[in-house]
Every structure is written in C-alpha cells, then in structure tokens.
Amino acid sequence: MRAGFVVTEVLNGFRRNITMTIAMILTTAISLGLLGGGLIIARMTDQMRDVYGDKVEVTIYLTPDQSAQDPDCRASPCTDINKQLQANTDVETIDYESQAAAYERYKQQFAGQPELLEIGTPEALSASFHVKLFDPQRYRVIAEQFDGKPGVQSVADQSAFLDRLFSLLNGIRNATIIIALIQALAALLLISNMVQIAAYTRRTETSIMRLVGASRWRTQLPFMIEAVTAGIIGAGLAILGLIGAKFLFVDKALGPVIRSGILPDIDGATLVWVSPILIAIGAGLAAVSAYVTLRLYVRL
Amino acid sequence: MDRLHSAVVIHSSHVTKSYKTSTRPALEDVTIDVEKGEFAFLIGPSGSGKSTFLRLLLREDVPTSGDLEVGGADLVHLRRSKVAAHRRRLGCVFQDFRLLTNKTAAQNVGFALEVIGRSRASIKQVVPEVLEMVGLDGKASRLPNELSGGEQQRVAIARAFASRPLLLLADEPTGNLDPDTSADIMLLLERINRTGTTVVMATHDNAIVDSMRRRVIELQLGKVVRDEARGVYGVGR
Lengths: 300, 237
Ligand SMILES: Nc1ncnc2c1ncn2[C@@H]1O[C@H](COP(=O)(O)OP(=O)(O)OP(=O)(O)O)[C@@H](O)[C@H]1O
Ligand SMILES: [Mg+2]
Description:
The complex is a heterodimer. By secondary structure, chain A is of the alpha+beta class. Chain A is built from twelve helices and four strands.
C-alpha cells in the first residue's frame, strides 16, 4: 500500500472533521498530561525513598538537665543509653551530639537568619544521640526502647516526617491519576465519536471502496490511522505541557525545596522516561477505541 | 448441470429473496445460468427485483433460500472475510455513477485499483489505457462535476473494467442519460463484452434492448417470466 496515498486520506479526514479532531486531541492531551504528572510523582517518590533510605536516622533527645549536667556523656544515664544502643543489633552507627555541638550546627544552619540566631541559645537545645539503623523501618523498636527512659526527653524519627511527605505525594499522585482516567474515558468517547462521524461523512467513499473490492481492513485503516495520529499528537501536546509545567511552574514554585534536596529535581531523564509511555498509551488508547467503534458501531 | 462448469459465470438455482419488511418476496425461485462471454439484459417493471438480483450477485445481500454461485464461488456460504475478494472479480456500474466527487477521473480509476492492492507501476500504466478505451483521454484530470453525465458514466465503466473483471454488472447504466449518449455507452459495453467479459445489465430502456438483440431475462414480481437468447423488450410495450 502506498504511504503517500494513506497520508493524503488521513489529512483530508482531519480537515473534514476539524472541530471534533481538535476536541479529541485536546482531551487526550489533558488526560495524558495528568497521567504523565502522576507517573512522574510516582517515580519521584521512589527516587526519594532510595535517597532518604540511607539518611534516615532516629534521634534520641536528652532532657535539658541531662544535657547540661553531663555534656560529654561520661556518666549514667547517658552511658547506659549508649551501651544499650551498642548492644542493639538493629543499630548501625551511633553519634553523640552535645549541647554545644548542637548549637554549632544550629548556627550553621541558620547562618543567614539573625532573628533565629538571636533567640537560639545553647541551653535551649538538647544533647542527642543520632542513631542510624540497618533497616530504617525498624525505628519503632528504638522508640519503644528509649521513650520515657531516665534522661530521655523524646525519641524523634525522621521517617515519621517522610511517611507524611510520602503519603502527601501518593495522594497527589492518586488524585492526578484518577482525574487522568476520567479524562481518558472522555477521550475514549470522543475518539469513538470522531470515528463515527468520520465514517458517516465518508460513507459514500467507503461504500465505493467496498464495492470495488476493498477489504474491510483496508476500508477501516484510514480511520484507525487517523485516530492513532490524533492520539499521538495528543501525547505530543501532553509532553510539551509537562515540559512547560516543569520550567514555568515546578522549577519556580518548588525551586528552593528542590535545591535543598528535599524533593528531587524533575530532570530531562524523567521526561525522556515518561514520553514514550505517554505516546504508547495515546496511540494504544486511540487504536483500541477506534477498532472497537469500527467493529461494533460502524457498518463499512 | 453437467455442462462445462467453468464456462458458467452465474449459476442461480431456485433463488428466493424475502425482505422482512415486505410480504411478497423480492425474488422468487429464480433459476438461470449465465455463461462466460454472454451479454444478458435483465428487464421487468419497477419493483420486479432486477436490482435485488444484482445486489445478490455483488454479495451485498444473501439469498433467503436457493443456490447462487458466481465464477464457482458459493455466495450463500461465502465467508464475510471473502466478500472483498469476490467483488474484486466483478465490475459494477450504476445509474448514479457513484464516483468519488473529490477525485479526478484518473484518480477514481486509480483508487479502485489502489484499494485492491495493485502496484503503483501497474496503476500508472492501466489508468491511461482504460481511460483511452472509454474515450476519455484528455479528460483524465477532470473532476466528476466537470464532466457530462455520459462522461461520468464512462469513468465508472473504466473503473469497473480496469481490473479486467470476470463479470460486469450494470444497473440501469443509461437511466440518467439521453438516447444518443445511451447508445454510446451501449457501444462501450458491447466492446467490453467482446473482450470476453460477461455483462449483465438491468434496464428499462426498450429501444436499447430491441436494437441489441441479446439474451433477455424478464422478471415480474420477482419471478422469471421469460428468458430468450435473442430477445426484444416485449410485445405491446
Ligand atoms: N432493502 C429492502 N428492504 C425491503 N424491501 C426491499 C428492499 N430492497 C428492495 N425491496 C423490495 O424488493 C422489490 C424489488 O426491488 P428492486 O429494487 O429489486 O426492483 P427493481 O426491479 O430494481 O426496480 P426498479 O426498476 O424500480 O429499479 C421491491 O418490491 C422493493 O420494494
Ligand atoms: Mg432497480
């Protein structure tokens, strides 16, 4: 079959059905854009899990009294805590931070913010044990072991914060994907409608094709190619939309959070990863919807 | 039925076609054979079933009962996927020409060859040949609305004949044309018939039937009432 022949037919088809085609392309683009957003969030969450997995630590804050009386952890109960941590097989490393060291770190962290530096004093901070676990998920064991022990103020766990961050991200991902699915349903119906209208406007042409002996497959092919082309154009727009969203919105609004390392950057690789997925889904969605419509609703 | 089977192009045996919406069958017990190379007129009053019979031959519809074979293919049991292949062996011409209005004469003929999978080279060669044969050389790049009715029908005939069909079906091909133009079209169909192509033509045009002196199959209310080898349209009409 001649490619040029089919291309001409498809372009003619688009022209004749232009408003419907535009509606269908835009709906597909929105659906795939949202889906792409959802996929990117899911991938980001995975990357974050990997990145944070190594860094997550449990912090055992000592009471202010304890912090001030035994700054170098020479006596009980500080040494007891240290011994118990060393005895715990879940623990990988233990790092004692005195009140003074904590204050140093505080000063560094807020170097640019004199208001905060003013209100912070060494006495307001606690000495602490920074405990890294072989398996960060086991933080609860440590929390149970040391919570309420003499000299212990509180046991803080970064993974609690991360859990909240992840559940927020998962929520956004799920919402995005649900909206994407609803949009995909709309896109599916629009594709079906587009194919039906196209088949109707070209019924003379297709009936003549059938009359001269064109196979059903050959008669349906231009409609399939038309729908798939529209689907791919929709996917292309969705990808452009995601690139635009990255530079115009995400990078601007979340720039500081990304630079500080809390959220990973949406880099080129992520967009390159998501693009073929969206194109395949756009083309597949259109092909399936067009095929089913041609089989069930159109007599060619 | 022990004649040379390969010479029979149309074999219709007790074919009946009833439509659900009407009480009387459109065709009833039609038994005719048409042999290779024949030219047969299908005549009869309006509603007698001429178009219905041609539609059955084209496999646009299936007989309600009876046997119907075209070129050895059993049309009653023909699988849907084989319909296209069946039609490629036929050519058909209609009263309303049925040309693609957005394509030129040459494109209309080429399109028909294209959809049945002919190569570009063969299309390039065949299209000018058939257009010349029907007397349209020089008008190849005209759109249908730039051609007269007779010329449009020539394009349709060129399209039907381009693939050298086994059987050419014509449903009132002169129905929209004046007598002179009709006569030209008949000359063309005769020429095509002389190449060995079997032609079956439904018509109301008694002058044409009377002048050609070919086989005449007359239908009335769906039944064959007359089948003469060298017939005329009818006495007293
Ligand atoms: N799709 C259909 N559904 C129901 N009845 C039909 C259908 N097609 C044809 N008929 C009926 O079948 C009968 C034969 O119709 P047909 O078109 O074959 O007649 P014809 O001989 O070609 O007539 P004309 O000379 O007017 O073209 C008519 O009574 C017609 O009403
Ligand atoms: Mg008729």
